[in-house]
Amino acid sequence: MPKTIKSITNPKLRMEILSTAEIKKIHEATLWIIEKVGVRFPSKRALDIWAANGADVDADKMIVRVKGELIEKALKSCPAVYPLAARDPQQDLPLDGNHVYVGTDGCGVEVIDIQSGKRRTSCLQDVADISRIADATEEVAFHWVPVSAQDMPAGTRGLHEIHAIWKNSSKHVQTESIYNEQEARAAVEMAALIAGGRENLRKRPVLSLMQCSAPPLGHDGGSLEAALVAAEYGLPTGFMTMAANLTTGPATLAGNLAVGNAEVIAGTALIQLAFPGAPVFYAAAQTASDLRSGAYTGGGPEDFLYGAATNVLADFYRIPLSMGSFATGAKEPNWQAGIDNSLSTFMASIVMSDMLLGVGFLHGSRIWSFAEMMMDCEIFSIIHKMMQGIVVDDETLALDAIAAVGPGGNFLSQKHTLQHMRELFLPQFMDRRPYTEWESKKDDGRDWALAKARRILETHQPDPLDKGIDAEMARIIASLEKQ
Amino acid sequence: MTEELFKKMAQSVLDGDSDAAVTLAKQAVESDIDPLDAITKGYVVGVNQVGESFAKGDAFLPELVMAGEAMKAAVSALEPEMKKRGSKRTMLGKVVLATVEGDIHEIGKSLVGTMLSASGFEVFDLGVDVPAAKIIAKVQEVDANLVGLSALLTTTMVKQKEVIDELDKLGLRRKVKVMVGGAPVTRDWVQKIEADGYSEDAIGAVALAKQLVGVI
User: What residue of B is the nearest CA neighbor of A219?
Assistant: First the structure.
């Protein structure tokens, strides 16, 4: 199976979604929010760090108000470039601003069973199966925990999940489902086994931790403490805002960007104050709430605009971005899923967002679909191809071939054609067959995508996890369960 | 004159204008209008109208919420007068709401609270990160007939079951119906923990609550 990872790099396409003046205005609004309105940090450890650095701490309400200068100073120590390391070093991912990588989405609660097609509650075996399939694709560069292992104890579930991924894939793991200090410490121990000790883990972080903020303008205590543990051991960590127009953010896009930005950069500044130079990333999945139900939509024009605007903010702070794209609200792989996932991923890609999350979900990141996973990979491949743009030089202008064919001939038998035809995109899941062939089968991309996922699951053998490490990971989890 | 005032009350709810709703409530008290009449002939008319245009697709969620808040503000302004007269609103039921222990995500739960209270339920919102014992104590204290439990995380969702088990143990389940909600809550989960129902959004939660207390 291929060891190559498909990433967008050296793009030819560009977009200016926000001017320099507009970015500055959002930044200043953000600092105003953090200083005047404040951000909630419900963790004693976090509040102590803020107090020690001279922030105005309201201990009762757990709200911190911080001067802009302190935030800006703290953010200066964020490293701009670092790697997400993998169990297989060949698959390390440099976060250098010149790569767009895709991960699996997370953390869903149901799965459309790959065999029966029935929707059911997610379990640990699903985490294993999805990771194994993702390991075989060239599009998926790293993992989130795709679904919740609801058959495992709540207190160690996050550890069972990353263990299952490492057993089934040699790619980088970014967990979004470890959000307390105890599990985070155990996860560090597990990651250190793969990296070969804690010092090596610092150089090659095979695990990163993503935490959700609690919009508007808040964080979760457990998440803050888990992020601080990650930073202490050099594991990349980031805060994701999902502030959504109407409900957890204002109805206007700029205001919602400012609310989300305040959550993320205040959290990031806290990490830098505690552990200057710790690798951090910006994370966001902002969207609009539905006007009628108030539900998080995971699609629509606002969602697509956030996809592009957020990386401009992350670039302004010189930190990598983990951006929510894909994640359609559609209930099955259909036209809505195609539109949502193509446009959100295109907009996030054209500005070179570093990490895109991610492939595989329906119903707003709740229901895993193996067919959707494969089709999302194809969406990324199409965008990957588009981002290369149009190369104009003597070879691609093909004047010799044009002269040889002359008016009225065809290019099928030209040597130039043979040399370049494989540069053209060949879809796996788009129907370009004759009408009669479709009419006799009535199948489509969804069927072929599912068949591909089944085939990979049956045949793909990932690089095995060292037996000793595997056993030691199990021991770490078991000892936590005994406590 | 009184009719005119009732119309203005309905309009204040339609406009989602809490300040106007309170001012009108005070006027009603000064004019010696029965506060129960003010509610049923004034504000409730507005709430119903917003509900109708929402159902038709003409009004949106923020308008429902603001109407609910205006109604709530008006009722609290009328409460001292109701007490004085010894009159009481007939409510559809008493609901204890909470985001379960270990979880701080409350926007959905609070929205459900606003909608329920606008629809005629008496709502006791205990906030976030609420342990089962505290929820049970409140249920017993106010003699609630509904409990609403929200959770956003699969790891905290298990606490919904804890509350249900506790109600079972105390033999309160026949009297107290339990509805659950939150992004990870599915029909399978509801069946597994033997909750009485769930809804994916706040509008559905009102219909569910009415069904559980037997008014629709």
Answer: B104
